[in-house]
Amino acid sequence: MMSETNSSIQSTTGRAAPDFGADVIDGKAFAANLLQRIKQDVADLRATTGEVPGLAVVLVGEDPASAVYVASKRRETLAAGMNSFEHRLSEETTQAELLALIHRLNADPAVHGILVQLPLPGQLNSDAVIDAIDPAKDVDGFHVANAGRLAVGQQALVPCTPLGCVMLLKDRLGNLSGLHAVVVGRSNIVGKPMAQLLLQEDCTVTIAHRHSRDLASITRLADILVVAVGRPEMVKGDWIKPGATVIDVGINRISRHGKTRLVGDVDFAQAGHAKAITPVPGGVGPMTIGCLLENTLEAFRRARAPLLKSMKKVS
Length: 315
Ligand code: NAD
Hints:
Elements: E1 23-24, H1 27-49, E2 54-60, H2 64-79, E3 83-89, H3 95-107, E4 113-116, H4 126-132, H5 144-152, H6 160-173, E5 180-184, H7 191-200, E6 204-208, H8 215-219, E7 224-227, E8 245-248, E9 252-256, E10 259-263, E11 276-277, H9 287-303, H10 305-314
Parallel strand pairs: 1-11, 2-3, 2-4, 5-6, 5-7, 7-8, 8-11
Antiparallel strand pairs: 9-10
The chain binds nicotinamide-adenine-dinucleotide (NAD).
């Protein structure tokens, strides 16, 4: 394990010191390329069909963090050349009012993706709201139909964060077949779909969680270690096998020496013996919006498949 003084090895920008052995995976640059590719695809679709994908985002209440997320989603959606439909509802919105909006969006042919920003105010049942979204427009991939399709290996819309993690892993490692992947965390939005995606890539997958015993002895087996728990710097250097590829999903705000900063679930400074690692910030985080737009594009393509097929025949 590395010494405590090495905790200064990672600057606030997520860059590593020159003697840090692991490659630092630049999620920001990868996401910028992904957004560029999506923009080009949307421009091509506009030129051939006269149509572009549309993403509807629903925000209920005044939560400041949610408002920031929604604003940045709108900005990126428009930058990609897609239509953005924003619905801001009051904090007092009832379940019936929200469901009525979801039903309208389900029926609207200009809307190909629907995202309801979570968390919702306490009077609303988020499971019932997600259930009401047409699975074909469920670009967050949270609907039980999409979770089920993913589990049985059918075509599904996949939650954005794990989708981004797999993209980064395949970019780094190429074929993942036969590698031992350990996923720490079993939430429905990250851990479980992450494990399903890695299984689809023919990894041997272990899922660990808060009840797992001797976690370090499990994570040490990993060729690919994905950590999504929400505990600052929980994974120490000696939990990581030399040469492993580490994907740190955690986003934790901590105060140290009178300053607040973001750290992941992995003690980055101690991970220099990994093959590669995502920093926090600048690793997995920037991929999420890119994957949301990728899902919206995919939902559009599936909805307009007959049109796109007929146009291919003509050209
Ligand atoms: P969650 O709270 O829903 O799930 C946490 C999981 O971690 C649970 O399955 C729990 O069993 C496990 N866990 C908790 N303590 C543990 C311990 N001591 N040992 C082993 N396992 C433990 O969280 P989530 O929504 O999956 O998010 C996890 C982290 O990822 C959070 O920090 C969150 O902010 C971050 N996150 C980041 C992105 C992104 O875009 N980068 C997206 C989603 C979540």
